[in-house]
């Protein structure tokens, strides 16, 4: 705290009765510069635009951020923490639930990927979450309508896998691939009023 106070005093001064930062007289106090001074500066991640660009459904963006950060509690984490139970994949039960399994290897991911991206690409998805994420980052990097829609669909795909996984774990019925497709299309229609979403999905 004391160190912080010393740092602030090195930059903050009062010139002609107005608070200033780094000795420059400005009409308004430069709050942004002060905030930039204090906030931790980390390198920009490659998936920043894929997850956070607009338009988007905030609920999907937030889940995608947690997933790309690896913050969600997958079965392998629970096992490593000593919990007992069935931590196999809730969709296929063929492997322990890991980030890589849910968002690359699992038949649910591959099925949804084919369903949602068939008009975008004939690419066959890999078995690696890292490869899948990098593909989406590159494929939907631009400002075009295709990229904007692609980012929204990717966010829907990733977030719906996690939501449906949670439902399945609690014994609830999950949506068929076709119904997920219908829901994503209706989200697209809301978010991209001016676009002809039918040509993408
Ligand atoms: Zn699975």
TrEMBL record:
<protein>
    <recommendedName>
        <fullName>Reverse transcriptase zinc-binding domain-containing protein</fullName>
    </recommendedName>
</protein>
<dbReference type="Pfam" id="PF13966">
    <property type="entry name" value="zf-RVT"/>
</dbReference>
<feature type="domain" description="Reverse transcriptase zinc-binding">
    <location>
        <begin position="29"/>
        <end position="109"/>
    </location>
</feature>
<dbReference type="InterPro" id="IPR026960">
    <property type="entry name" value="RVT-Znf"/>
</dbReference>
């Amino acid at each position: 705290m004391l160190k912080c106070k010393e740092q602030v005093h090195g930059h903050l001064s009062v010139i002609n009765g107005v608070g200033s930062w780094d000795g420059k007289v400005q009409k308004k106090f430069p709050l942004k510069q002060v905030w930039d001074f204090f906030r931790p500066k980390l390198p920009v991640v490659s998936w920043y635009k894929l997850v956070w660009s607009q338009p988007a459904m905030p609920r999907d963006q937030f889940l995608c951020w947690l997933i790309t950060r690896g913050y969600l509690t997958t079965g392998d984490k629970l096992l490593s923490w000593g919990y007992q139970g069935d931590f196999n994949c809730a969709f296929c039960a063929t492997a322990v639930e890991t980030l890589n399994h849910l968002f690359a290897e699992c038949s649910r991911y591959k099925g949804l990927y084919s369903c949602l991206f068939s008009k975008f690409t004939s690419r066959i998805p890999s078995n690696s979450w890292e490869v899948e994420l990098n593909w989406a980052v590159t494929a939907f990097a631009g400002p075009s309508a295709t990229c904007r829609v692609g980012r929204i669909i990717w966010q829907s795909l990733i977030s719906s896998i996690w939501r449906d996984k949670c439902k399945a774990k609690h014994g609830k019925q999950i949506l068929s691939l076709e119904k997920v497709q219908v829901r994503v299309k209706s989200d697209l229609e809301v978010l991209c009023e001016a676009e002809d979403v039918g040509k993408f999905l």
